[in-house]
C-alpha cells in the first residue's frame, strides 16, 4: 500500500476526538483495571501504548503510578494529550508504531481499537508484532484489541449499525468487507446538532487465528483471549477480542 500516512486518521479527528467518542469512556475503567491486573505478571510496571492518541488509557494508567510512554502518528492527537493534567508526564514519540522506537524496555505494550489491523497488510501487521517485541522485556506482554467479522459480514454487502447513540450525538458505521483485497472499508457518520461529519477508515482484516500465527512467528505465545476488556468469555459469536501475548524470547 503506497502513500500511507499514519497521521491521517488522527489529523482528521484529533481536535474533536474526545467529543466524537464520548461512549468510549464507559469502556475505559474496565480496560484500565484489566491492564493493571496484567501488569502484576509483567517484568515491571511500565507500559508503552501504540496509538496513544489523546491519552484515554495512558493518563489513567499514569495516575495509578505506572510509567507510561506512547507512539502516535498524529501531532494533533498528541497535542490534546499534552494539554491534559498529567500529559506532560507521558513520554511520546511522533511516528509510525510499525517501526518507530522509544528509549528503554517495557513490561507491557498495548494496541487497542483495531490498530493491529493495519491497512498496509499482513507484512505491516507482522512488523507491529516485531516492534512490540523490540520494546518489551523478556516475558513482557503485548495486549491487542480488534474486531471479529462474522460470516454474514464477509459476504461483501454493506452493513450499517449504530456505534453510539446519545441525546445529541449518533454515530453510524457503514462497513463492507472486500474478499479480494481482505480490506474492511468503513465510513463513520457522526450526526450532531451542528451537522454531519464523515470519516473514512480502511483496515486489513486478520482473524484471531491469523494474529496468533503472526505472534508465534515473532516470538510470542498467547496466554489469554477475552471477548472484551471486562474479561467476558470469547466464543464463536464474539464480535471483538482482547488478546494477550507473552514475549517468548529475545534475540
Which secondary structure elements does this structure contain, and how are they paired or packed?
Layout lengths: L7 H6 L3 H4 L4 H15 L6 E5 L7 H6 L3 E6 L2 H8 L8 E4 L11 E6 L10 H14 E12 L11 E7 L4 E9 L4 E10 L2 E10 L3 H10 L2 E7 L13 E8 L4
Parallel strand pairs: 1-2, 1-4, 2-3, 4-5
Antiparallel strand pairs: 5-11, 6-7, 7-8, 8-9, 10-11
Given this structure, which CATH class of the largest domain is correct? Answer: Alpha Beta
How much helix is in the residues? 25-40%
Using DSSP, what is the number of strands? 11
Q: Span between N and C termini?
A: 29 Å
- For the largest beta sheet, what order do the strands appear in spatially? 3-2-1-4-5-11-10
**Average pLDDT number:** 91
The CATH topology of the largest domain, please? Rossmann fold
Radius of gyration equals: 17 Å
| Helix/strand class | alpha/beta
Secondary-structure arrangement, i.e. CATH architecture of the largest domain: 3-Layer(aba) Sandwich
From the spread of the alpha carbons, the general shape counts as: globular
**Distinct helical segment count:** 7
The biggest beta sheet is recorded as: 7 strands, mixed
Q: How many individual domains?
A: 2
The share of residues in extended strands comes to 25-35%
Low-confidence stretches: none
**In CATH, what is the homologous superfamily of the largest domain?**
Vaccinia Virus protein VP39
Order of SSEs, N→C? HHHEHEHEEHEEEEEHEE
Amino acid at each position: 500500500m503506497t502513500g500511507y500516512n499514519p497521521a491521517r486518521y488522527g489529523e482528521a479527528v484529533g481536535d474533536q476526538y474526545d467529543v466524537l467518542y464520548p461512549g468510549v469512556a464507559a469502556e475505559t475503567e474496565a480496560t484500565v483495571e484489566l491492564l493493571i491486573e496484567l501488569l502484576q505478571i509483567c517484568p515491571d510496571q511500565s507500559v508503552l501504548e501504540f496509538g496513544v492518541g489523546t491519552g484515554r488509557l495512558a493518563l489513567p494508567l499514569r495516575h495509578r503510578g505506572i510509567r507510561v510512554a506512547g507512539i502516535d502518528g498524529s501531532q494533533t492527537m498528541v497535542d490534546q494529550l499534552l494539554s491534559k493534567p498529567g500529559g506532560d508526564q507521558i513520554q511520546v514519540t511522533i511516528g509510525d508504531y510499525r517501526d518507530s522506537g522509544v528509549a528503554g524496555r517495557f513490561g507491557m505494550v498495548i494496541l487497542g481499537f483495531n490498530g493491529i489491523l493495519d491497512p498496509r497488510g499482513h507484512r505491516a501487521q507482522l512488523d507491529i508484532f516485531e516492534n512490540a517485541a523490540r520494546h518489551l522485556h523478556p516475558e513482557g506482554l503485548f495486549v491487542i484489541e480488534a474486531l471479529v467479522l462474522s460470516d454474514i459480514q464477509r459476504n461483501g454487502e454493506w452493513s450499517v449499525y449504530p456505534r453510539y447513540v446519545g441525546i445529541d450525538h449518533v454515530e453510524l458505521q457503514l462497513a463492507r468487507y472486500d474478499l479480494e483485497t481482505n480490506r474492511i472499508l468503513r465510513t463513520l457518520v457522526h450526526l450532531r446538532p451542528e451537522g454531519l461529519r464523515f470519516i473514512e477508515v480502511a483496515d486489513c482484516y486478520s482473524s484471531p487465528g491469523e494474529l496468533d500465527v503472526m505472534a508465534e512467528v515473532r516470538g510470542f505465545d498467547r496466554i489469554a483471549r477475552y471477548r472484551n476488556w471486562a474479561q467476558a468469555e470469547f466464543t464463536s459469536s464474539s464480535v471483538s477480542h482482547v488478546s494477550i501475548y507473552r514475549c517468548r524470547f529475545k534475540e
